[in-house]
Specification:
This protein has 430 residues and is α/β, with parallel strands linked by helices. It contains 13 helices and eight strands. The strands form two sheets. A five-stranded mixed β-sheet has the order 6-5-4-7-8. Helix 1 crosses helix 5 (122-141), helix 4 (81-105) runs antiparallel to helix 5 and helix 9 packs across helix 12. The longest helix has 37 residues, at 393-429. The chain starts with a helix and ends with a helix.
């Protein structure tokens, strides 16, 4: 009975640990996105426009991503078992309460448990926590009996590696762009084709969801667009299914120019290179790269590349930005939400080639003034590429240590089992 109890605790430990590690990593890939999700949760008590709100939510994002990953990592390693087991139960109680609130009140579209990589419904998120909570309690009940992969002299190495690795990973994803972009505007996406395909799909959904009501001889009947009745019927009204009202487009990219005219076709149908400098607000945009932006605009103009600023700023903020930076490029208006979805930097650069995203850069990665010309001239031949993998090396090293320790554990256990078996056989022979 004790063996079964310990086995259940070990299985629960592995499940909870792996979920925590996966959830923490997927959120740490995009700490700014996690901060935006936290901001949605805190809206009733902390307005996103309040002074310091962005700093608070970003700090909470780092704490949440890092602590969740480290809790899972320490559980898998078997170090600080009692302390981590208690924190895991406390964390699961809190998250179960939060997901129950979102299930009842529906304050946000999705919980953000796994970042943008895996989107769960409110019910799925709540059920996940309902399963994980009792598993974490099982881990706490037998925490001291859980096996550990490292001795007391060894455990500080993987512990330090996991702490430093996740902090460095989050910092690099914040300073640059997310290591993996799970959003619909990833590098390599052909926006022209993707938006056209979505519009065609929406039209099909609209036609299928719209019912046309006709009457004849005192009776009414609903018809689909593909099967309308003859002229003996009288049209009454068109009705749409209720669930269509909750439809949210995947590509909410509809910038307008200063006159309010749509500029989507201007950007996506243009042949060749188009550069977009994006920021939700010029008031909060970093001014550390003003020289690089000016050089980008001037060199792009010499090469004949269209250059646009895209923002949700007011006309006063745009005027202030032009005054501070001398910006003479045309400004397009776009809601702040799609801008934050497209790029997590303020400001950030997006490069289109024939309607396809071939490069995205945070302001920390803008080419230097001296390198702008070389960068722009390379764009016609540039192949879409992701960020450097160096930010993941420490985490891979931690994972390798985990695997080696796991193999060592089972090798020792196998050796002990074989040794006892041989000893028992020799005893029986005598």
């Amino acid at each position: 009975m004790i063996h079964v109890r310990h086995t259940l605790a070990e299985v629960a430990r592995v499940i909870v640990g792996l979920v925590f590690v996966g959830s923490g990593l997927l959120k740490a890939v995009d700490p700014v996105g996690t901060a935006l999700k936290i901001s949605q949760y805190l809206t009733p008590i902390l307005s996103p426009a309040a002074a310091g709100a962005e700093t608070i939510t970003l700090a909470l994002s780092f704490v949440l991503c890092g602590s969740e990953f480290l809790l899972g990592a320490f559980l898998l390693m078997g170090v600080y078992r009692k302390f981590c087991a208690r924190l895991s139960v406390l964390f699961m109680l809190m998250m179960t309460a939060v997901t129950l609130y979102t299930l009842i009140a529906n304050p946000i579209s999705d919980c953000g448990c796994f970042g943008d990589a895996i989107q769960l419904t409110h019910l799925e998120s709540f059920l996940k926590n309902v399963v994980l909570l009792p598993l974490s309690i099982l881990v706490l009940r037998d925490a001291r009996a859980l096996r550990h992969l490292y001795s007391r002299r060894e455990r500080w190495v993987p512990a330090v590696l996991s702490v430093v690795g996740i902090i460095y990973f989050m910092a690099e994803n914040y300073r640059h762009l997310p290591y993996i972009d799970f959003r619909p505007y990833a590098v390599g996406t052909n926006l022209r084709e993707a938006i056209a395909k979505e519009e065609a799909s929406l039209q099909r959904v609209l036609l299928g969801a719209t019912k046309y009501i006709y009457s004849k001889d005192g009776k009414t009947k609903a018809f689909e667009a593909s099967a309308l009745p003859d002229s003996t019927w009288t049209f009454v009204e068109a009705r749409q299914e209720a669930d269509l009202a909750s439809y949210k487009p995947r590509y909410d990219f509809n910038p307008v120019d200063s006159l309010g005219e749509p500029a989507v076709s201007t950007l996506l149908d243009s042949e060749g290179i188009t550069l977009l400098l994006l920021s939700p607000s010029w008031r909060t945009a970093s001014q550390a790269v003003l020289d690089e932006i000016s050089e980008l605009h001037e060199e792009a103009s010499r090469l004949g590349y269209p250059f646009y600023g895209v923002t949700a700023s007011t006309s006063e903020e745009i005027a202030q930005w032009r005054y501070l930076t001398g910006a003479s490029y045309p400004m397009l208006q776009l809601d702040a939400t799609p801008i934050r979805t497209i790029i997590r930097s303020q400001p950030g650069l997006v490069v289109l080639r024939d309607g396809k995203i071939i490069d995205k850069r945070a302001y920390a990665d803008f080419p230097s003034v001296e390198g702008v010309s070389t960068y722009l001239r390379s764009l016609p031949q540039m192949q879409p590429h992701g960020p450097s993998a160096t930010r993941t090396y420490l985490l891979w090293a931690w994972a390798a240590l985990q695997l080696l320790a796991f193999l060592r554990f089972w090798a020792r256990k196998l050796h002990l089992t074989v040794h006892l078996h041989i000893k028992k056989r020799l005893h029986l022979t005598k």
